[in-house]
Amino acid sequence: MGDALVTSQRLDDGTAIIDVRGELDVTTVNGFRALLIDTITRQQPARVVVDMGRVTFMDSTGIGALVVGYNTARDIGAEFVVRNPSPFVLRQLHITGLSDVFGLPVPANGVGGQLTAPTGRPSTSPAGNPRAAG
What predicted TM-score, i.e. pTM, was given to this entire model? Predict the structure, then answer.
């Protein structure tokens, strides 16, 4: 099993940024989930951005933690955004049908290759959606 490093910061505009690096799996997800929930409930940010550009692996427990974070943010009226998903994370979220929930581009062919933004237009970057760009 892997290692994960999760850090958080608050921007001047009140946005909470959660930066995740490494592997999110059954051995590492508890710390990520706890930091995510704690950040949302204590800071009450208007926007939560989870940067997943350096996540090398994520299993169903990592996906579950993202859903918990999304629901916790929604409960307080905050926007929840996944930003810069690694290709592995993007594929996992697409397969589970969650890429649209998090405002992420989906692979044009459904598996990989060129990314298409939720509007159906080709994306100019892996982040794809200007709203998700941070």
Answer: 0.76
Number of compact structural domains in the chain: 1
Q: What is the pLDDT of residue 2?
A: 59
pLDDT digits (tens, 9 = 90+) for 84-97: 999 999 999 999 99
CATH of the domain at 83: 3.30.750.24
Closest by Cα among 74, 8, 83, 82 to 46:
74
Residue 126, Cα to own-chain centre: how many angstroms? 13
With beta carbons less than 8 A apart as the criterion, state whether 7 and 38 touch: no
State how far the Cα of 80 lies from the Cα of 74, in Å rounded to an integer. 7
Helices (H), the chain: 29-43, 60-76, 87-95
